[in-house]
Amino acid sequence: MAEKPQPVRVLYCLVCSLPAEYCEFGPDFEKCKPWLIQNAPDLYPGLIKETNAKEADKVAEQLQSAGISSSSGDGATPSGVTSAPKEEVKRLPGGKIKKKEKQEVVIEKVTRNKRKCITTVKGLDLFGVKLSDASKKLGKKFATGASVVKGPTEKEQIDVQGDISYDIVDFITETWPDVPEAAIYFIEDGKKVPAA
Description:
InterPro entries: DENR/SUI1_TIF, DENR_C, DENR_eukaryotes, DENR_N, SUI1, SUI1_dom_sf
Family: Belongs to the DENR family.
Radius of gyration: 29 Å
Domain SUI1: 105-176
GO molecular function, one term: translation initiation factor activity
Organism: Manihot esculenta (Cassava)
Order of helices and strands: HHEEEEHEEHEE
Structural class: alpha+beta
């Protein structure tokens, strides 16, 4: 006589209440990970490796912040001497690094309909200039329409109707003394060229 089939025992996650092998498809896999590592390590072996790697990164980061290098100690920099200051960076979720933006004003002339031009001014806000006030001043000075719009990179810029690139550098440096002329660039033939 054949053996009587036994019921299958299913391990359910206490966080999302799905079977443990389906947690990765659940509403929040990140919250389930600690529970899975502790109760079902054989189902997700990659999680253990990932956790170990994150812990190693944290230790290395703590060592660097304390001034201890994890390098081989070849004596390239003597102890007590700090290296050149690094560029300020910001950590985003997921481990991505966001670099601090350079303070520069970029002026670009875009031709549309073969005759009409639009001059875009990007980066004035990095110098503490309020873009709505700047667009009003540019519109009054050059007797044209000027507005604040979101550019292709989702950052606000000023669009001025017409080709005003010939006088705009002088106007910017006179109106906002915080903006140095060395920080103003033109885009010509796809290349950034200093205005000075």
